[in-house]
Design brief:
single chain, 316 residues, alpha/beta, Rossmann fold, 6-stranded mixed beta sheet, 13 helices, globular, binds pyridoxal-5'-phosphate
């Protein structure tokens, strides 16, 4: 199955095909390396890449529980907020975005304007209050205040987000040895990890500096209810590349931007400077290592191209 399924959901969304593309280069051919790209960026222009994966079952749960809508969290430039607003509008439910920064308003930037135009109610809170966003007591307080809203953590990082991302590898019907994926909250990589075969390795590229990938993945999986021993066994299949953050979240030095434009010129594939550009640079650099000779490698394109608007120039 190569399509993301919405048949069982009462939601008015037209979704694109997340196909698997092949990247070719004589250098890789010589060493019998086969490179594939899972094109989740094609799923939807706004609810793109991993966004729909993380929201799908949260929307379903909200509809099944007959809640009024989804309440979630994000920074001023959060793609997750916009995607949630669009998904909720398509499902005919309301959305509330709790935004970091009480100096902001609905017109502060294009992301927030877009959320508002998609029907999301924005609530701006101080950075101190936002720091509490994952605290149990804070959730209880919000739950009481917004009783009929389904609360989804920042970045869709909950059990439902994880199991939505588990579907990515189930749609792959070529033999794969190694998978490369960008990491923020780790939700997407946790979902991918859960559906790996025993011999497959998952290469994660955190875009945050000094990020504890394994610790964060473990904590999210345990919070999601997954068994500790199984989680520990699965995490043995993960390889962390923590040297491709290019200075940290939201940092994109010129050499990264040059890589993204050259890559687009060569392979006609667009990457974003926050997540996928860094992950792809990591994969291409690592392929030079002998251990990849004769291997089949999959890059999961998690979308995010709207994040690169005005930063990367794809004109030729
Ligand atoms: C384009 C893109 N790729 C990767 C990620 C990282 O995903 P996760 O937060 O699930 O680790 C994000 C953040 O959601 C993203 O927007």
């Amino acid at each position: 199955m190569e399509y993301v399924n919405t048949e069982d959901l009462d939601i008015d969304l037209e979704l694109g095909e997340s196909r698997v593309d092949r990247l070719n280069s004589p250098i890789w051919d010589e060493r019998s390396i086969h490179i594939f790209v899972k094109r989740d960026d094609l799923i939807h222009p706004i609810i793109s890449g991993n966004k729909w994966r993380k929201l799908k079952f949260n929307v379903e749960l909200c509809l099944n529980l007959k809640k009024n809508g989804i309440l979630t969290f994000g920074g001023a430039y959060s793609n997750h907020l916009v995607a949630t607003a669009a998904a909720c509008q398509s499902a005919g439910i309301t959305s509330i975005g709790i935004v970091r920064g009480d100096e902001l308003n609905e017109n502060s930037n294009e992301t927030l304007k877009q959320c508002t135009s998609l029907g999301m109610k924005l609530v701006f809170i101080s950075r101190e209050e936002y720091a509490l966003r994952n605290d149990r007591e804070y959730h209880q307080k919000l739950g009481a205040e917004y009783r009929l809203m389904h609360l989804v953590p920042e970045g869709g990082a909950n059990y439902y987000g994880i199991i939505g991302c588990q579907e990515i590898m189930q749609e792959i019907n070529v033999e794969i040895d190694d998978v490369f994926i960008a990491q923020g909250t780790t939700t997407t990589s946790c979902g991918v990890l859960l559906s790996l075969k025993d011999h497959q390795r998952l290469h994660v590229i955190p875009v945050l500096k000094k990020f504890d990938s394994i610790g964060e993945m473990k904590s999210l999986l345990l919070k999601g209810g997954f068994d500790q021993e199984m989680t520990d066994d699965l995490l043995d299949q993960v390889i962390v590349h923590d040297d491709f953050h290019f200075g940290g979240y939201g940092k994109f030095p010129q050499d990264l931007l040059d890589f993204i434009t050259n890559f687009h010129f060569e392979y006609k594939l667009k990457l974003d400077p926050i997540y996928t550009g860094k992950a792809m640079k990591c994969m291409i650099s690592n392929l030079e290592n002998d251990e990849f000779s004769g291997k089949s490698v999959l890059f999961i394109h998690t979308g995010g191209l709207q994040g690169g608007r005005g930063i990367v120039d794809f004109s030729e």
